[in-house]
Amino acid sequence: MNITRQELIKICDRFLEDKISKEEMIHFATSVMFDDEDQYECEDEIVEEILAQWDNVQIQHKINTRSIRFLRDHLLTI
């Protein structure tokens, strides 16, 4: 599965609509980052960096509605 910017925007939308939790986002990021079977591939370095940040324990406390809305808007413009 190719993880694209569009996929990340959809994940952000689902989070902002309270359809997924912060923990589910973290679990997804961890699954992608530590995929031993090469099921996942990131579209580019931006996608990989975002997932790495979501997976980073020291940054996870910053995952909130405001930061995800900002990230979503940024993904739409790049």
Your description of this structure?
It is a single chain. The protein is mainly α and 78 residues long. 62% of the residues lie in helices and 5% in strands. The protein is built from 4 helices and 2 strands. Helix 1 (5-16) packs antiparallel against helix 4 and helix 2 (22-33) crosses helix 3 (45-55). The two termini are 22 Å apart. The relative contact order is 0.22.
Topology:
Layout: E1 2-3, H1 5-16, H2 22-33, E2 41-42, H3 45-55, H4 65-77
Parallel strand pairs: 1-2
Helix pairs in contact: 1-4, 2-3
Note the overall shape.
globular
Helix content: 55-70%
Low-confidence stretches: none
Radius of gyration based on Cα positions? 12 Å
Estimate the strand proportion: 5-15%
Q: What average pLDDT do the residues reach?
A: 96
Supply the key terms.
single chain; 78 residues; mainly alpha; two-stranded parallel ribbon; 62% helix; globular
Question: Briefly, what is this?
Answer:
With 78 residues, the chain is mostly helical. It is 62% helix and 5% strand.
